[in-house]
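Summary of Year 1 activities. Much of the first year was spent building the evaluation harness for sequence design. The harness presents a backbone, in tokenized form, and records the residue chosen at every position. We chose the following record to illustrate the format because it has been used consistently in internal testing since the harness was completed.
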């Protein structure tokens, strides 16, 4: 029998964990697979091993693992596969199919634009934009972010679109915020490319408040758990399903 295991990042903030699990609960009816469980990579339970155990206890023999992450950085490429390798020894008869994370997708850029529109502020044609990512030491993160920025430019026709990271990558959010602010743009949009309002959002608010004048700065909501994300999840799970697309199998017989 087939199962899906959704692996969330994990957070020390209870609200963040609850938001992720609630979104997965709302997504389950759209995914046509009998067994569906959620777990966390770190900082929270159930762990990956507990998640796999729960699937197996319900009769799962094949598990599609979906890393519920924005981009394919170290967590998706190293940490989760390493955990799965360990778990595989405990469940040698289970076959695992590994899905891609959400990744670069046009629908994600549409959510950013929606977050701008819902502020009620007109988007000026000469506005400056700062896209804010969590950051990672994995070079692919920067490549993916550049692709997201290009898609965003193409869709909005805005020219001054910048990128800043909250950790582990340069340029830093703080440096870019200060640099762009000093150029006195007519309007500066700060768009968090984050799934939920965690500690990082509070950091952004604090940095914006520390600037001398903040009138022209508009901080939008995070991406949040938007219905478009559910559609991408469905797509990624279908791609990894051996009966419905290509797949990558990790299996120690």
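For this record, the design step produced the sequence shown next.
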């Amino acid at each position: 029998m087939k199962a899906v295991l959704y692996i969330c990042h994990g957070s020390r903030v209870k609200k963040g964990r609850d938001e992720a699990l609630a979104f997965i609960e709302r997504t389950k009816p759209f995914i046509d697979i009998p067994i569906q469980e959620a777990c966390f990579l770190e900082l929270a339970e159930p762990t990956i091993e507990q998640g796999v155990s729960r699937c197996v206890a319900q009769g799962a023999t094949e598990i599609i693992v979906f890393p519920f992450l924005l981009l394919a950085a170290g967590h998706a490429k190293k940490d989760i596969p390493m955990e799965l390798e360990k778990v595989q020894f405990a469940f040698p008869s289970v076959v695992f199919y590994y899905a891609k994370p959400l990744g670069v997708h046009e629908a994600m850029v549409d959510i950013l634009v929606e977050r701008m529109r819902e502020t009620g502020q007109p988007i000026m044609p000469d506005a400056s934009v700062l896209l804010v990512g969590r950051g990672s030491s994995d070079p692919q993160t920067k490549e993916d972010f550049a692709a997201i920025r290009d898609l965003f430019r193409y869709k909005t026709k805005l020219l001054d679109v910048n990128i800043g990271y909250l950790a582990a990558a340069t340029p830093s959010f703080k440096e870019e915020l200060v640099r762009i602010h000093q150029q006195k743009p007519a309007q500066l949009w700060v768009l968090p490319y984050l799934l939920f309002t965690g500690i990082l959002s509070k950091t952004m608010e604090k940095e914006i408040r520390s600037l001398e004048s903040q009138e022209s700065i508009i901080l939008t909501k995070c991406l949040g758990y938007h219905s478009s994300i559910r559609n991408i999840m469905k797509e990624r799970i279908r791609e990894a399903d051996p009966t419905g697309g290509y797949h990558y199998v990790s299996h120690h017989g």
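The beta strands are 2-8, 35-40, 62-68, 95-98, 128-133, 160-165, 188-192, 217-219, 249-250. Quantitative recovery figures across the full test set are reported in Table 2.
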